[in-house]
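Lab notebook, bench 4. The sequencing result for the construct came back, and we need a structural model before the next group meeting so we can plan mutations. Quick request posted to the team channel:

Model the 3D structure of this chain.
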Amino acid sequence: GAYEEVVDIVNAYVLTEKKALHMRALKTFKDDFGVTRKNGEEWLIKMSDTETHIPNVYEEVVGVVNITTLSNRSYCVVLDPCDEANHPQLGRKKLVKGEKSFFLMPGERLER
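Done. Here's the predicted structure in token form:
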């Protein structure tokens, strides 16, 4: 329109089966998938959600998360694992056995 100003040009992120986007809410809002995100909340967007994603004005891309793949003879320990509702269980550990591929959720990390 006549009184609009271009503040920023945002490119779409292309998601693959091996990469997901780590997102953070800049304020409380309802995202493109109809989920209410609270200020500071972090989550992943995977290819199973959408093939491409253009960040909303109220969200930022923290980074790209690569998939973790385990063979049938390997395992790993996830520190501070998330529960079914994606809330971090601080101080807990979760054993994950192969054969499996998964994305580490925000706040999760692998034990060395």
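The radius of gyration is 17 Å.
Will bring this to the meeting.
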